[in-house]
Amino acid sequence: MLTHLTLAATYPPSAFVIGIVVFVLAVFIGFELISKVPSRLHTPLMSGSNAISGITIVGALLCSYSGSVFGVMLAFLGIVFATTNVVGGYLVTDRMLKMFQHKEDK
């Protein structure tokens, strides 16, 4: 056990490996949390998802000022995907709200 700790202290993991581990854990935890949500709470959950996508757009815009071509490409992809998610979320929410509106009798 002591040799493992010594090796871990001598060769710390790179930032890329730490990022991959955090991403994989976030995927599994997110999937488990979302799958446990009752169906009547999915609409508020989508509203939160739209807010997070808005924050993603801001982060992608900040990333576009990195000065590197790779950063600009990632920022462009982030903006495209997050904008698609926001617009789709609002369209689905609008359709759901129209289902609950009362139709006027003529």
TrEMBL record:
It catalyses: NAD(+) + NADPH + H(+)(in) = NADH + NADP(+) + H(+)(out). It comes from Algisphaera agarilytica. It is found in: Cell inner membrane. Keywords: Cell inner membrane, Cell membrane, Membrane, NAD, NADP, Oxidoreductase, Translocase, Transmembrane, Transmembrane helix. Its main location: membrane. Its EC number is 7.1.1.1. One of its GO terms (cellular component) is plasma membrane. This is proton-translocating NAD(P)(+) transhydrogenase. Residues 20-101 form the NAD(P) transhydrogenase alpha subunit C-terminal domain.
